[in-house]
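By convention, each integer encodes one residue's backbone shape. The lines below illustrate.
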Amino acid sequence: MSVATLPLSPGEWELDPHHSSVDFTIRHLGISKVRGRFTEFTAGLYVGETLDDVRVTSEIALASIDTGNADRDAHTRSAELLDVEKRPTMTFCSTRISGDGEDWTLAGDLTIADVTRPVTLAVEFGGVVGLPSGSQEARRVRGDGRDPARRLRVELLPRAAG
């Protein structure tokens, strides 16, 4: 049992959609990189008393892909690739978190269509600030998942629920 804790108050934390993003970079035909983002997503963070009690979940609308090229986006949404008509979302559910200070590792399961694979994100925590309303807001929680073919970056600005 882990006795370490996150530097966030226990409880539910909400996603600030105006200061959050889900971006990616993927190799195209092995010669160029395509950068893009998903514009519609939700995320939840539950901070428990210990790291064993922390849960992170996210759901991303695959149809919201935006690579800056409408033709490429339409092809990616089609039945040949993502098939967003039959499989509209991808999900992430955490399985483990470890680290301290600013540097954390978040492991979890990423599900796209009917395929679930384990992923590990290197997470940078930027601290907490108090808001005039009396609630708290994390300055930044940024996670990078990298392998030779693709990169997923999630930048979230959570705030205490309530």
